[in-house]
Specification:
heterodimer, A: alpha+beta, 6-stranded antiparallel barrel, 12 strands, B: mainly alpha, Arp2/3 complex 21 kDa subunit ARPC3, 6 helices, globular
């Protein structure tokens, strides 16, 4: 078949392909780059403009739906974060409590001669002159007045009053508290006394006793108020004046009295009241 | 009603006092929320149940504290008496009456506690008590006095509404 110009169609097609192949070959060879840049740059610019406008319109149309969905998702995630944070705090509290209980169990195992009743500290005495705490166990749990109270670190006090469901503990830091103690390794006897400042001091240490800073302070068991050999603390400094009959010393307690949360009451110890045996002045 | 409402209020304040406030002392002093409530209530203009509130607060304090029996009651009664005298004398400037009452009330109630403890044989040094307990407590009570007065003022307005003139 001939074209209107009189050339056969197959020849025209062949020429067309040859031109196309030539152009492709030139393009692949990089010879058409300047030309294509001139031709394509306006096209790319127009395409970019159209595409940007289209995306803008599309966002405008679909934004409210997305914002609502995102807000909802955000609220869900915030709720989830809050729930997880609460869970973390609860787990940390449980871990802390477990650590304390574990230490208390260790203490009880290390001192098998005593039996213990665990209790939580629920309050402190409202009077600032007194160093007492209130625990959530009472006579219904077998507690009696005078029973010693310890933590995993050592002695903290004894029960001063007991009701059915609670008890009041007089801490050894209370100004009215006195504990007969023994110092190790010197073996000297002394009296541990609470102070208004919340500290404890040693009094009545014989002048000839060789007491050093760092000596251990343990209950002596004398007087019948406490069982012997419960750790209280360490001597931190000694105040010795030659003309005094006794030496005095400051004590660093092993228990942190500002952070007592769980305690153990030694419930197989019965205090002995030696008051009738003390001669009247 | 005005008397009965003191029981839950004082109980709540005692729980707050013994479980939180007593754990955060300034030196060795702590604010006395019950005393503040009694004083702030006593200084309200139309209140007529000051003594009842004083007794209820003292009884609740005595139940929880290891203070000698009657020390809290005597301290609170004397403090309430001071507050009532101030209400009559300087009622035109309630804020002045409040501060004076809180200061004197703290000194009186803590002083009574100190004397009572020394009478039963507790070796508490007086000067150290004043520096470490009474003065810091007075300062903290003064800080808490204004919110206590405002809150109990609202309660008093609710319980003793002002009569409208015809």
């Amino acid at each position: 078949m001939n074209t209107p110009s009189g050339r056969p169609r197959s020849l025209q097609t062949a020429i067309f392909f040859l031109i196309a192949a030539g152009l492709i070959a030139l393009a692949l060879g990089g010879y058409l780059t300047p030309l294509s840049r001139i031709l394509l740059n306006p096209v790319v610019a127009i395409q970019t403009w159209v595409s940007t406008r289209y995306q803008g319109v599309q966002e405008l149309v679909s934004a409210p739906r997305d914002v609502t969905r995102l807000r909802q998702r955000n609220a869900e995630l915030e709720a989830e974060v809050a729930r997880l944070q609460t869970q973390i705090i609860e787990l940390q509290e449980q871990l802390s409590e477990t650590n304390v209980l574990s230490a208390l169990v260790d203490f009880a195992r290390a001192n098998p001669e005593n039996s213990y009743q665990a209790a939580a500290v629920i309050a402190r005495d409202p009077s600032p002159f007194l160093q007492y705490v209130i625990i959530n166990r009472g006579s219904d749990d077998g507690l009696r007045r005078g029973m010693p109270v310890v933590t995993q670190q050592g002695l903290i006090g004894r029960l001063a009053a007991v009701t059915a469901g609670a008890a009041r503990v007089q801490l050894i830091t209370d100004p009215a508290s006195t504990v007969n103690v023994r110092l190790e390794p010197s073996g000297a006897q002394a009296i541990l006394q609470g102070q208004l400042t919340g500290e404890v001091t040693l009094d009545m240490i014989p002048q000839d006793a060789n007491v050093q800073a760092g000596d251990l302070v343990l209950t002596s068991g004398l007087g019948g108020g406490y069982p012997p050999n419960i750790l209280i603390g360490q001597v931190s400094s000694i105040r010795s004046v030659d003309q005094d009959i006794f030496q005095r010393a400051n004590v660093q307690t092993v228990a942190d009295f500002s952070k007592i949360n769980i305690v153990l009451v030694i419930n197989n110890f019965r205090p002995v009241d030696v008051t009738p045996l003390i001669p009247a002045p | 009603m005005a008397t009965l409402i003191a029981i839950p209020i004082m109980t709540g304040l005692m729980i707050l006092q013994s479980s939180i406030i007593s754990r955060v002392p300034l030196l060795q002093g702590t604010p006395d929320l019950l005393l503040l409530a009694v004083l702030a209530w006593t200084l309200q203009k139309r209140v007529q149940s000051a003594w009842q509130w004083c007794i209820i607060a003292a009884v609740i304090f005595t139940l929880v504290s290891a203070l000698p029996l009657g020390a809290a009651l005597l301290g609170y009664i004397l403090s309430t008496g001071v507050a009532l005298i101030l209400r009559r004398q300087v009622w035109q400037i309630p804020i002045l009456a409040l501060f004076v009452a809180v200061l004197l009330g703290t000194f009186v109630s803590q002083g009574v506690s100190l004397v009572a403890l020394r009478l039963v044989g507790d070796p508490i040094p007086i000067l150290q008590s004043f520096n470490l307990v009474i003065l810091p407590s007075a300062l903290l009570n003064l800080l808490f006095a204004i919110p206590a007065f405002a809150l109990l003022g609202d309660l008093a307005s609710w319980l003793y509404p002002e009569e409208l003139e015809a």
